[in-house]
Design goal:
It comes from Streptomyces ziwulingensis. InterPro entries: AcylCo_DH-like_C (IPR036250), AcylCo_DH/oxidase_C (IPR009075), AcylCoA_DH/ox_N_sf (IPR037069), AcylCoA_DH/oxidase_NM_dom_sf (IPR009100). Its cofactor is FAD. The chain is α+β, with helices and mostly antiparallel strands. The chain folds into three domains: 83 residues; 79 residues, Butyryl-CoA Dehydrogenase, subunit A, domain 2, CATH 2.40.110.10; 146 residues, Butyryl-CoA Dehydrogenase, subunit A, domain 3 (Up-down Bundle), CATH 1.20.140. The protein is built from ten helices and nine strands. The strands form three sheets. The protein has a four-stranded antiparallel β-sheet, with no helix packed on it. A hairpin with a 2-residue loop joins strand 4 and strand 5. The longest helix is centred in the middle third of the chain and has 33 residues.
Amino acid sequence: MLFEFDAEQRLWQDTVRKALLKECPPALVRGIVDDGADAAPLWRVCTDLGWTELTDPADMVELAIVLEELGRVTDPTPFLATMSRFAPLAPGFDDPRQSGTAVHTGVTARPADGGWLLEGTARHVLDGDRADRLAVVTGAGVFVVPATEVTAVRVAAFDPVLHLAEVTFPGVRVTEWSRTTADPERARHLAVTGMALTMVGACRRALEMVLDHVRVRRQFDAPIGSFQAVQHKAADMHVAVERARALAYFAALTIAENDPRRRLAASMAKAAAGECQALVFRNAVQLFGAMGHTWENDLQFAVKRAKAGELMLGGAAEHRALIAEECRATDL
């Protein structure tokens, strides 16, 4: 495995970053939260640029770069749910123009008239209220269901840009044609890795904002960034972000190469991202002083996206337990 970006990957990262700098500035995110601005134009940019076509496992590192950069700008589109949750569960149902998400729990399937009847309610489904299709994991397999067949209600989330929904399946009939061949466990590895990458991007943005602030904020006739205590906190944030980032890309590499360590790597990435967001959240708000607690400060969007990510697909403590279990069961 190569642990450094090659020239093409560096060019890809630069291209994605420049596109998002233009199409998803902080003003767009704030406009969505404050004024209900529409995120659909940004979604169309993602599809037009071909980012929603990165569904092959061999493209995982390129997809990881996009997910990290979208996390950095607090992506308001359903890209994360579509590419890290729906796509791995729905091979053969690809449509780059349509969004999707996954339902992992809460829904059962029972035989009915040569097909199945899906019933139940799934809670906290990422983008469940605005996805075009849902990949539903049941005991009988994974089924792709049009969003028009279910009832979805958005629920409040810590991150005001994030869409979470309660999705109800009122006896949805599906056929063999809607069942996929996906492996739900493998798909979960990609979902966990995608969430870790998003959190890393958000934490990196918080660190960048802190560094910009401490360079210009002055006390005692000197930038506060020149004070050793401030430097120590910023250095701790940098180390935490780089550690989490390295583990997230290692997890992406294991998926790209179908490495059997991908389950362990995904948990390591999510645990590191969870620990990173806790430190970044604490230090970033403190280094901004009273400004860090105000609604006018855009720092809130980065730290809220990272904090919300910790609450989904298992927190750091849960994934550390999974890592310990994996290590006990494997001769390392």
